[in-house]
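User: Please fill in residues for this 249-position structure.
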């Protein structure tokens, strides 16, 4: 296992500036946010000019990319076309894991299975592992449902965000069943009242989680995802959680 951080920790910055900030904070690996509504790299841009996207990810970066987090607004064929472009980007950067959001609650089970099967099939062509993010308000917020998706879609993994199971109505939900399916981990501190709590003021048991992941032979990223918040020293929080995770590995 190793510590990384998402470029989306600095959503207001362009990709190069965000990665430079992470480097200043002594992170050595990063997760690339490819979000249509973001400021860094858009999936729609990759369809028309993949080379520019690759260059943007490589130019001047001292950090190693370890995963891609995808946010696509397109629908229909354009959705899958953009996802295929993201997978080609991953292949060019030698990134294995591509994290995808789950559909909203209320989405028919079979429709979600069909979507995920298509994404996994596209990913296989470029040697990409597709990981379904655990998210509140989405079909993956229930660990048992997320597990069933993995059981029904061969090759699908989970991008585990433990915060989902420590906040609000989901606080205290047992997500141990997802550990064997985990292909990526997203971390911040969280408690019942605050989804993004200050480091040390939440209920995430980092040591226990790392032990469970080790027992499942997980050897990928622990990716920090802390965004700016009022009255919080953002850089200090990013530095604090890195030091904490490093001490546990």
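Assistant: Residues filled in for all 249 positions:
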């Amino acid at each position: 296992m190793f510590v990384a951080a998402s470029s989306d920790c600095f959503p207001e910055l362009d990709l190069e500036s965000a990665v430079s900030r992470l480097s200043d904070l002594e992170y050595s690996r990063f997760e690339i946010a490819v979000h249509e509504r973001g400021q860094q790299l858009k999936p729609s841009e990759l369809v028309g000019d993949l080379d520019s996207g690759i260059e943007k990810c490589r130019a001047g970066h001292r950090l190693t990319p370890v995963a891609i987090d995808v946010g696509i607004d397109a629908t229909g064929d354009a959705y899958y076309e953009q996802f295929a472009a993201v997978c080609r980007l991953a292949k060019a950067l030698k990134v294995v894991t591509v994290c995808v959001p789950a559909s909203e609650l209320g989405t028919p089970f079979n429709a979600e299975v069909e979507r995920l099967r298509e994404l996994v099939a596209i990913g296989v062509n470029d040697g990409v592992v597709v990981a379904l993010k655990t998210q509140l308000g989405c079909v993956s917020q229930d660990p048992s449902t997320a597990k069933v998706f993995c059981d029904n879609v061969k090759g699908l993994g989970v991008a585990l965000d433990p915060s989902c199971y420590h906040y609000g109505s989901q606080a205290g939900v047992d997500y141990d069943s997802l550990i064997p399916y985990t292909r990526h981990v997203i971390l911040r501190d969280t408690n019942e009242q605050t989804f993004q709590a200050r480091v040390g003021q939440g209920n995430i048991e980092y040591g226990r989680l790392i032990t469970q992941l080790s027992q499942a032979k997980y050897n990928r990223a622990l990716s920090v995802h802390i965004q700016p918040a009022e009255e919080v020293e953002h850089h200090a929080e990013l530095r604090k959680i890195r030091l904490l995770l490093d001490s546990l590995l």
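For context: The radius of gyration is 17 Å.
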